[in-house]
Specification:
The structure is a single chain. This protein has two helices and two strands; from the N terminus they run H-E-E-H. The protein has helices at residues 2-54, 76-92, and strands at residues 61-67, 70-75. Strand 1 and strand 2 (70-75) form a beta hairpin. Helix 1 packs antiparallel against helix 2.
């Protein structure tokens, strides 16, 4: 009986160690990437809102990195709309 239990425990530990732990490590890494992206967009939103409040001259348009090395010129309101869409997309991923 003890041998059967030990064998089941060994097989369960093997199952956890082989397929599940690497999947968990990968999932955590992907989650961390999303959190980092959310923080970047949150900081960008805060910076744009601060620019609007403080009336910094000559900042009617800003360039936002949208990924893959591409930048898009936005007005402040367009950038805030883009950020909202991107944050929602990241929250759902």
């Amino acid at each position: 009986m003890d041998g059967l239990i030990q064998e089941k425990v060994r097989r369960f530990e093997e199952f956890v160690d082989l397929p599940l732990k690497p999947d968990l490590v990968h999932a955590i890494a992907e989650r961390d990437k999303v959190f980092e992206q959310q923080e970047v967009f949150s900081n960008l939103r805060r910076n744009i809102e601060n620019l609007e409040k403080n009336s910094v001259p000559d900042t009617q348009r800003i360039f936002v990195d949208i990924g893959l090395g591409f930048h898009v010129e936005f007005t402040w309101s367009e950038a805030l709309k883009y950020i909202s869409v991107k944050e929602e997309s990241l929250a759902n991923s």
